[in-house]
Amino acid sequence: MYITPHSPWKGAFYERLIQSIKHSYAKAVGRRILNLDDFTTVMTEIEGTLNSRPLAYQSTDIDDFESIRPIDFVQRSVMLTPNMETIASDTDEDDYRPAHERHRFQSRNQAFDALRKSTNIVEQFWKKWSELYLINLRDYYALRQGKTTNREPEQGEIVLLIEDDLPRNAWMLGLIEAVIRGKDDSVREVKLRLPSGSIVNRSVNTIAPTEIRSVDTNAARTDDRD
C-alpha cells in the first residue's frame, strides 16, 4: 500500500492491524517457548486466520452474499480452518493392537496431540484478535483527521457484528434494514436482518463496517484535506 510521505494517518488502520496481531500473539503464547515446529504450525494457522477475514461483500443481498478475502486472490473459496472434531484419538484402543501397529498409531496420536496444542494457541489468538480487529474497524470508521465526526451507518449496508465467542474464522454479519435516530438526530441504533432471516436491534457501538469500506471512506476524507 502506498502512503503519502509525511502522512502517517493514511496508514493508521494497517498500523493498528499489525499491532493487534502482535498483541494477540503475545497473549496467546504467554510465557511458553515454542520449538521451531510448533512455532511454524502456529504462525501458519494464524496466517490462515488473517487471510480468511472478510474485506468486503460482493452483494448487498444478505441471502446471496459472497465475501472477498485475502486468500481469494490466491485460491478462491478455499477453507483454511481444520475440523478438529474429525480428529479422534485411538489411545484407548492401543492395548488391542498388535505390537507392530501400536508404534504407528502412537506416532499418529502424538501428531494429533501436537496439532491440538497449536490449535489451542491459535484459538486463544483468534478470541483476542477478532475482538481487537472489529473494535479497530469500528473506531477507525468514525475517525476523521483533526476531529471525530461519525460517518453514520446507512440503510442497505452490510456490517459485521461485534459478538463474543464466535468460532474461528467465523464472522457474524447483518444487513441494515433501518436506522434509528436519537433526540440529537444521530444514529444510535440499527435494525439488522441476519442471514437466518431474523430481525434484531443493535447499538451502533456493536457493529463495524467491512475493512475496504472503512479504509476507503477515511482515505477519501484525508485526500479531501490534501
UniProtKB/TrEMBL annotation:
Boundaries of every DUF5641 domain copy: 117-208
MF term (GO), any: nucleic acid binding
Source organism superkingdom: Eukaryota
InterPro entries according to UniProt: DUF5641, RNaseH_sf
PANTHER family: PHD-TYPE DOMAIN-CONTAINING PROTEIN
Name of the protein in question: DUF5641 domain-containing protein
Organism: Steinernema hermaphroditum
